[in-house]
C-alpha cells in the first residue's frame, strides 16, 4: 500500500486516474456532471479555510496551479473565498444555487447538504479513488442514505489520547482503569462529542451511519456503564475537561493524560517535550467485562455543487483536492494528516497522526452525517453534565439512563 512518490508517475497521468468518470464525458451518475463543455474558459468559485489560503504560495494556490497544469484544456479563473469546513453547510444553505462550485466540508454535515441539494454525487472514477484511498470508516462518512458517495475525504476528524509517558507505560495506556489508578486523567465527559465513547456498542443510524430508519441504538448494558461513569467521576484522578480545561491542566502537569485531536498536537508536544506520547483509545471494565472506548469518527472532505455552471470541471477539481498528491502537499505545508492509506509512511514519525489513524481503524464508530444526528447533541451534553455534577448516581442510574435513551433512541434488542 505504500507509495514512493519520488518514483510515482507524472502529475498529468496521476490526475487522469483520479478524475471522475464525468471528466471523460462518459455516462455518469453524478447529477449534471457530464453537462459541461470539454474545455475553454471556466470560472470556479472555491471555498476553503483561511489557513489553506494564507500567503502567496498557500496550499490552495499550489493545488489550483497543479490542476491547471494537469488540464491545459481549461482556462480557469479562480474565485476563492474563506469558508471553513465547519461552516460549509450553513453557508451553502443560504443560497445553494449561488454557493461555491467546490468546497470543503465536515462529513457530519452531509445530510444537511443533501437536503439542500447542494452536494454532487461522485462519478465512477472519483468513487473508485475514494475507495482505494480510504478504509471503511472514512468511506462510510461520505456515503449518503442512498448508498452513493458525495465527498472526497482528505483527513480524519476524531479524538484519541495524549499522555505523559513518564507517568504511564505502554501497557498502562491500554486500560483507562489502570491509568486512573496511577495518575490524573482529563476527559471531556460533559461534552456531547465525547461522552458516547463510553457506551460501547452504541450505533448511530446503523453500522455505516447512513440508515435513517435504524436510529440511535444504545447497548443493553447502558445502565451498568452509567454506574461505572458515576464511579469514575467520584475518582479524584478523573478530571472533567470542561471547555477543554484538560489541555491547560496537561500543560501545567496537574493531569498526565488528555483526550483530544490532532489540532492540539503541537501545543501538547511542546508541553510534554521528551515525555510526549499519543495512542488510540483504551479499554475500561464494567462488571468484569472489558469494554472498548470508541470515539465518533468523521472526516473532512472536498465536494462539488451540482448547481455549478461547470459541474464537470467542479467535480474534477473536488476529486483533485482529495487526491494523494494534494493530501501529501497538505501535510507538508500544514501538517494535516492524510486519510490516504498509501501515505502512511509520510506520517510514520508523527505520533498524533498515527494515534488518529489507529483510532479511526480500531477504536471509533462512524459519526453519522444524517440530519437525525442533531437529536444527539443537547441531550448527551445534559446527561454528561449531570454525571459530572453527581446528579446521576449509581442509585438513580436506571431512571436517568432510561430517560436519556428514550429521548434520543432505544436500547438494543
UniProtKB/TrEMBL annotation:
InterPro entries: SBP (IPR006059). GO terms for cellular component: ATP-binding cassette (ABC) transporter complex, substrate-binding subunit-containing. It comes from the Bacteria. One of its GO terms (biological process) is maltose transport. The keyword Transport applies. Residues 1-22 form the signal peptide. Belongs to the bacterial solute-binding protein 1 family. This is ABC transporter substrate-binding protein. It comes from Bifidobacterium scaligerum.
Amino acid at each position: 500500500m505504500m507509495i514512493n512518490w519520488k518514483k510515482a508517475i507524472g502529475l498529468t497521468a496521476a490526475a487522469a486516474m483520479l478524475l471522475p468518470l464525468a471528466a471523460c464525458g462518459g455516462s455518469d451518475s453524478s447529477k449534471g456532471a457530464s453537462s459541461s463543455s470539454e474545455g475553454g474558459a471556466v470560472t470556479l468559485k472555491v471555498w476553503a479555510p483561511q489557513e489553506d489560503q494564507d500567503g502567496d504560495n498557500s496550499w490552495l494556490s499550489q493545488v489550483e496551479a497543479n490542476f491547471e497544469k494537469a488540464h491545459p484544456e481549461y482556462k480557469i479563473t479562480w474565485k476563492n473565498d474563506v469558508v471553513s469546513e465547519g461552516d460549509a453547510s450553513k453557508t451553502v444553505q443560504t443560497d445553494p444555487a449561488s454557493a461555491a462550485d467546490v468546497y470543503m466540508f465536515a462529513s457530519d454535515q452531509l445530510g444537511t447538504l443533501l437536503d439542500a441539494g447542494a452536494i454532487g454525487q461522485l462519478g465512477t472514477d472519483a468513487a473508485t479513488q475514494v475507495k482505494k484511498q480510504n478504509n471503511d470508516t472514512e468511506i462510510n462518512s461520505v456515503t449518503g442514505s442512498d448508498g452513493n458517495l458525495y465527498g472526497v475525504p482528505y483527513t480524519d476528524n476524531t479524538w484519541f489520547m495524549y499522555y505523559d509517558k513518564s507517568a504511564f507505560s505502554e501497557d498502562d495506556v491500554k486500560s483507562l482503569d489502570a491509568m486512573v489508578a496511577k495518575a490524573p486523567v482529563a476527559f471531556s465527559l460533559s461534552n456531547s462529542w465525547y461522552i458516547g465513547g463510553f457506551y460501547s456498542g452504541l450505533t448511530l443510524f446503523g453500522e455505516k451511519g447512513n440508515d435513517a430508519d435504524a436510529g440511535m441504538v444504545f447497548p443493553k448494558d447502558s445502565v451498568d456503564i452509567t454506574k461505572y461513569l458515576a464511579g469514575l467521576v467520584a475518582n479524584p484522578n478523573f478530571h472533567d475537561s470542561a471547555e477543554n480545561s484538560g489541555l491547560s491542566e496537561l500543560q501545567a502537569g496537574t493531569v498526565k493524560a488528555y483526550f483530544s485531536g490532532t489540532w492540539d498536537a503541537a501545543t501538547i508536544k511542546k508541553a510534554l517535550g521528551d515525555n510526549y506520547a499519543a495512542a488510540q483509545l483504551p479499554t475500561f471494565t464494567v462488571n468484569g467485562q472489558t469494554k472498548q472506548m470508541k470515539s465518533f469518527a468523521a472526516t473532512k472532505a472536498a465536494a462539488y455543487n451540482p448547481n455549478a455552471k461547470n459541474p464537470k470541471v467542479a467535480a474534477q477539481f473536488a476529486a483533485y483536492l482529495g487526491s494523494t498528491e494534494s493530501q501529501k502537499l497538505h501535510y507538508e505545508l500544514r501538517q494535516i494528516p492524510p486519510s490516504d492509506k498509501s501515505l502512511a509512511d509520510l506520517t510514520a514519525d508523527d505520533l498524533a497522526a498515527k494515534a488518529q489513524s489507529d483510532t479511526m481503524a480500531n477504536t471509533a464508530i462512524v459519526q453519522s452525517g444524517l440530519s437525525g444526528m442533531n437529536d444527539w447533541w443537547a441531550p448527551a451534553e445534559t446527561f454528561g453534565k449531570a454525571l459530572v455534577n453527581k446528579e446521576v448516581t449509581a442509585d438513580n442510574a436506571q431512571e436517568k439512563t432510561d430517560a436519556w435513551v428514550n429521548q434520543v433512541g432505544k436500547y438494543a434488542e
